[in-house]
Write a structure and sequence with these properties.
alpha/beta, about 270 residues
Length: about 270
């Protein structure tokens, strides 16, 4: 495994390389995960492909510039310029996308920014198929951002609010569980807060995405856990209805945790990639 850094446009990211093929498959991991997640998927690649797995900001050794405010979030055009420079560094123009959870919406936005350069996409339980009201409030309003910033070191308010909102049916059970699983320590709460802010502009336009996938005939697959309470299969199927292909959604007997050998074997034996 090779690890390196790339710096351009005032940004610096860590990435890992798995495999030795000439064709590049760019991978984006999920929240709280790491670029190394995709090493196990190398066996599912074609012989002429290799993973370039990027650590998202505030994950691994990819850190948001210390001199830049979190509210000065990553812009879409900024991501496009950085990514094009990165492709130039790799010496490639065309690439494919392979992503999980949070990385899914980064992959979708990347596709929207440079659709003519993409060969195929596999999104595993991707975020971005539906935006919940809680997330929109937290990242989209100054009140929400201030409240969340306060709860990083004062979690009782957030936990009580989540309990009340759940009882009043203002949030789903999956979001209620998310609050307790991902915010049980100050370090985790800080990572959630910072990651959400940095990527708050990455809300893919699903109508435009479907249009680009159809027009450019990009090989596109959504792999979804049948029992996933975070990314619902029904949301994946709703999006897939906009596509020209009828087999874009593949369901697997699992929940949201899909970074494991069983899923690797499923992708390989079912020839999904």
């Amino acid at each position: 495994m090779e690890r390196a850094f790339f710096e351009a446009e005032g940004l610096r990211c860590e990435y890992a390389v798995f495999g030795s093929g000439e064709k590049v498959v760019v991978a984006f991991h999920g929240f709280g995960r790491e670029a190394g997640d995709f090493e196990q998927f190398t066996s599912a690649l074609e012989h002429d492909e290799r993973f370039i797995s990027i650590n998202l900001f505030q994950h691994g050794n990819s850190q948001w510039p210390s001199e830049r405010a979190l509210t000065d979030s990553l812009k879409k055009n900024e991501h496009a310029k950085f990514f094009q420079a990165f492709l130039g560094h790799l010496g490639v123009e065309r690439f494919s996308l392979f992503a999980y959870s949070l990385g899914g919406k980064i992959a979708m936005q990347t596709c929207l920014l440079m659709p003519a350069q993409i060969d195929k996409m596999l999104l595993i339980a991707p975020d971005g198929l539906k935006v919940n009201r809680f997330y929109r409030f937290i990242v989209g309003t100054s009140l929400g951002r201030n409240l969340f910033s306060f709860t990083v070191s004062n979690p009782s308010f957030l936990l009580r609010s989540a309990d009340i909102a759940f009882k009043l049916k203002l949030i789903h059970a999956k979001l209620h569980r998310f609050v307790y699983v991902h915010m049980d320590s100050e370090e985790k709460r800080k990572q959630v807060y910072e990651t959400w802010l940095i990527y708050r502009h990455f809300v893919p336009n699903l109508d435009e995405l479907a249009l680009q996938l159809n027009q450019r005939k990009i090989d596109f697959t959504l792999l979804i856990g049948k029992h996933d309470s975070v990314i619902k299969a029904k949301d994946a199927k709703r999006f897939a209805q906009r596509l020209d292909t009828s087999d874009a959604v593949i369901e697997i007997e699992a929940g949201h945790q899909l970074m494991n050998p069983e899923v690797v074997n499923f992708i390989r034996t079912q020839q999904i990639w």
